[in-house]
Amino acid sequence: MGATTNPVYLRVLEDLRAQIRDGVLEPGARVPSRNAIIARYGVGETAAKHALQVLTSEGLIEARAGSGSYVRAVPATCYLEHDRPHFPGSPFGLAEGRAVMSWEHQTQQLHPPRHVARRLGLAEDGLVTMTRYLLSAGGSPVQLATSYEPASLTAHSAAAFPEEGPFAGRGVVERMRTAGLAVDQVVEDISVRPSLSAEAASLEMPPGTPVLIVVRDHRVGQRVVETSEIVVCADRFILRYRIPVSPGTGVLAGDSAIAAPAGAVVPA
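RE: above sequence
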């Protein structure tokens, strides 16, 4: 077998990560210093430094000035359930009885970022109605969501703003129906990346902690009439999807292909 071409630091990173995940290094335990890593693993200073930086960016350890690095005490992981028909402002919600959930939200009209304008098929000077949400449970932040929709779609209607007027909190599907648009598909793309500083501050976690990103599009045919980005702390929560199956057919309710769960009526 030929020699490995993987970067040297990966050997250190994977071993320390495994020790943390397996509980060998428990929360609060001191992580080997840079010099200790160099001596124990036979690597250079750059590899030792890089391994510690990655563990910090993953939210597994935290540095304390003048003391060293320690394993973070991560809150117990719990499930976020997809779709909450009785609470349509939330893409995901905690299981029943866990905590009282509440939203903070702010809406404004503006020119969107380029990638959002492309997704919505807008010209460069097109305006969107943007709403930012912060979901909290029991007083602790759970998820961020930013929703964008072309301002022209519901302009001058009773459903112009997601959280104002008679359609406040009723969801994208119902609001778009007032504009003569029948949403027929909800598509979600899920990925993971390090959190941005503003996200980390809002979700009360160290910058760089991994977050789950759910990009959620409401579509009419191939046209995206609303898009949102949902941010959830990856080391606190597991996203759970329940997909109905039609009795006696073994077919997913509403379609024979996996798409969004039936009844997805959520305004991000």
